[in-house]
């Protein structure tokens, strides 16, 4: 057979490339193409050809991951509860990534189980919010499978919020707890407390304590250190505080602890020592509750300052025994009506005997215009959150929930 030459001209004068001689080359070429096609599509080729044909990797295993990802609630679900429903799982494999985000792109924290079979959120979800879920798992061969889903949480019919003290941006004394009063009684206290996170600088352990079902206070074991910065995150939106009643509040509150001032009243000596950073800066003569109206013992936190106020015995169960319309320099110590205040009607009682109906009185003038009297000095040198400790009175210790006075509980009892 001759070697294949270049171009040739057929009987009709058309140029072409001869193959295996004359016009018989065309069927031969088609036949060769068919053979190649069969070899490429059939199962009788090489290992590499066989792997491609079956969609397998060089090791002979399927390229598709065997892992199966499941997401609850189902894709497109509406009115989803804010807790207990969102779950991600994996079978025939382990989860490697779960990302849950709200419409603003904020991620929801969660944790993959030790065996990689499930993921659960570490917090509740917000109400009336659309969430997207992206989950990835891998099988024993390392091949990945992924699922994406979205759902929308419920819109609650009944809600609650927390009214708190101190105010955002305030500077307060070393005795000030962070106190929250809820507008509805809470029957799921652990869920609500978990949604309030407190951080401090410098760091200190802060614990919460419930007074009844509508008040939650937070404090450290001892008075705050002067200069401490406190940040509180109220993440109540979507928390089910009681069946069918959900929080609707998301807020960050920051406050600073000012200088340390603790004033110690000795009811038997009729004196008060004002201490700054543990040092006495002034001793003031006082009068406390007379027999039968004795002042509470214990630690009391200043919760309100009033330049002038009216004090009426009827409001605290003392009938018409007194009604003074212009009490100057008044600072509240208890919810029940104990104040430390200016007194312009006490005569020579200050430093000598106890004459009040349970309050702590300091010498003052009517109208409170004299800045040099003891009451005016103390008022101007005090701030909300400062502490007044009363000792050697004939009454019992003030109740921890009567005002912001949880310091009268031991740390062990506080944490119960």
UniProtKB/TrEMBL annotation:
<dbReference type="InterPro" id="IPR038063">
    <property type="entry name" value="Transpep_catalytic_dom"/>
</dbReference>
<keyword id="KW-0961">Cell wall biogenesis/degradation</keyword>
<dbReference type="InterPro" id="IPR050979">
    <property type="entry name" value="LD-transpeptidase"/>
</dbReference>
<keyword id="KW-0133">Cell shape</keyword>
<dbReference type="Pfam" id="PF17964">
    <property type="entry name" value="Big_10"/>
</dbReference>
<protein>
    <submittedName>
        <fullName>Ig-like domain-containing protein</fullName>
    </submittedName>
</protein>
<keyword id="KW-0808">Transferase</keyword>
<dbReference type="Pfam" id="PF03734">
    <property type="entry name" value="YkuD"/>
</dbReference>
<keyword id="KW-0573">Peptidoglycan synthesis</keyword>
<feature type="region of interest" description="Disordered">
    <location>
        <begin position="45"/>
        <end position="68"/>
    </location>
</feature>
<feature type="active site" description="Proton donor/acceptor">
    <location>
        <position position="341"/>
    </location>
</feature>
<dbReference type="InterPro" id="IPR005490">
    <property type="entry name" value="LD_TPept_cat_dom"/>
</dbReference>
<dbReference type="InterPro" id="IPR041280">
    <property type="entry name" value="Big_10"/>
</dbReference>
<feature type="domain" description="L,D-TPase catalytic">
    <location>
        <begin position="261"/>
        <end position="391"/>
    </location>
</feature>
<feature type="region of interest" description="Disordered">
    <location>
        <begin position="1"/>
        <end position="22"/>
    </location>
</feature>
<comment type="pathway">
    <text>Cell wall biogenesis; peptidoglycan biosynthesis.</text>
</comment>
<keyword id="KW-0012">Acyltransferase</keyword>
<feature type="active site" description="Nucleophile">
    <location>
        <position position="359"/>
    </location>
</feature>
């Amino acid at each position: 057979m001759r070697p294949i030459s270049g171009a040739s001209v057929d009987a009709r004068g058309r140029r072409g490339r001869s193959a295996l001689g004359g016009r018989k080359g065309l069927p031969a070429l088609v036949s060769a193409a068919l053979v190649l096609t069969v070899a490429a599509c059939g199962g009788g080729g090489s290992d590499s050809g066989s792997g491609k044909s079956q969609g397998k990797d060089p090791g002979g295993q399927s390229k598709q991951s065997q892992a199966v990802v499941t997401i609850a609630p189902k894709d497109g679900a509406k009115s989803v509860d804010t807790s207990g429903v969102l779950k991600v799982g994996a079978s025939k494999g382990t989860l490697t990534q779960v990302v849950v985000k709200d419409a603003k792109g904020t991620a929801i924290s969660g944790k993959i189980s030790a065996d990689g079979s499930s993921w659960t959120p570490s917090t509740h979800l917000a109400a009336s919010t659309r969430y997207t879920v992206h989950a990835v798992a891998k099988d024993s061969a390392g091949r990945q499978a992924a699922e994406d889903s979205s759902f929308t949480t419920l819109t609650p019919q009944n809600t609650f919020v927390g009214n708190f003290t101190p105010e955002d941006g305030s500077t307060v004394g070393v005795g000030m707890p962070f106190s929250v009063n809820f507008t509805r009684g809470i029957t799921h206290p652990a869920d609500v407390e978990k949604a309030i996170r407190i951080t401090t600088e410098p760091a200190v352990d802060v614990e919460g304590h419930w007074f009844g079902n509508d008040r939650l206070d937070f404090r450290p074991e001892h008075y705050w250190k002067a200069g401490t910065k406190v940040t509180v995150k109220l993440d109540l939106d979507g928390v089910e505080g009681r069946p069918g009643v959900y929080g609707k509040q998301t807020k960050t509150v920051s406050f600073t602890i000012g200088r340390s001032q603790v004033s110690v009243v000795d009811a038997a000596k009729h004196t008060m020592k004002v201490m700054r950073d543990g040092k006495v800066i002034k001793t003031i003569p006082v009068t406390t509750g007379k027999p039968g109206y004795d002042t509470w013992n214990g630690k009391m936190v200043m919760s309100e300052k009033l330049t002038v106020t009216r004090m009426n015995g009827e409001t605290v169960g003392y009938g018409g025994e007194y009604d003074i319309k212009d009490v100057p320099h008044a600072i509240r110590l208890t919810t029940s009506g104990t104040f430390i205040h200016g007194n312009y009607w006490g005569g020579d009682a200050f430093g000598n005997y106890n004459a009040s109906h349970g309050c702590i009185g300091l010498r003052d003038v009517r109208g409170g215009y004299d800045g040099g009297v003891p009451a005016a000095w103390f008022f101007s040198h005090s701030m909300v959150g400062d502490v007044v400790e009363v000792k050697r009175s004939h009454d019992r210790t003030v109740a921890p929930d009567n005002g912001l006075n949880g310091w009268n509980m031991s740390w062990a009892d506080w944490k119960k």
